[in-house]
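Researcher: For the annotation table, I need structure tokens for Ribonuclease 3. Please keep the output clean. Sequence:
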Amino acid sequence: MPRAKKNKISGSQAWAEAFAGIDHASLLERLGVDVEPDLLKLALTHRSFANEHGTLPNNERLEFVGDAVLGLTIANELFDRFPSRPESDLSPMRARIVSRYGLADVARSIDLGAHVLLGKGEEATGGRKKDSILADTTEAVLGAIYRQHGFDVTRDVITRLFDDKIENAHWIQDWKTELQERVAELGGNPPVYTATAKGPEHEQIFTAEVAIDGVRRGVGRGQNKKTAEQNSAREAFFFLKEHPEAVALRQK
């Protein structure tokens, strides 16, 4: 007796099931705003998933919108926060904030990678951790928020998520972004930060360490975790400036 053929599900059904299989409540909580399910599903759909399931749409159109809203918001924030800075300072400041590495850093802070819908190939090659995918998906999510809620709400989400980077933009470098870019240039994996705190709650001192490919390269301290991480990244950046082979040799 011939074996019954399994019914192959449609691309749309596979899409719906993949989206429903992930609890997105934590992401929405970190974003601080609700996003309509179909719009969020589209924002999280990488082209590798869409292509793998036929003619599904992907998030690139929303990414296009999000990029524009992000650029305008960051430019306006820099204009307001740094009134004495000329355009020649503001342009590179904005570029560092909205760079692939700056966006990927924000994506990691909200664990966005866990929510992206990827094709099997990207999944197998660590797509959830790739800077390019994280950065593009961040812009797509911002595009979705803009399409549903308009500019004011999206601006508020951006300024909250990027506040640390905007505040640190007046320094020569946002050291975490600078370090991540340098490590990527050398072919290493993204830096990994760990932090501890000592002292009473109202006057804690934080100590952060940054490791690159499993080796500690910087230690920093500060009155909050973000400052400690920036200081550790600064130390690691200058170490790699003097010893670029430390990353390159470990990749061979």
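Researcher: And a one-line annotation?
Model: The beta strands are 192-198, 205-212, 215-222.
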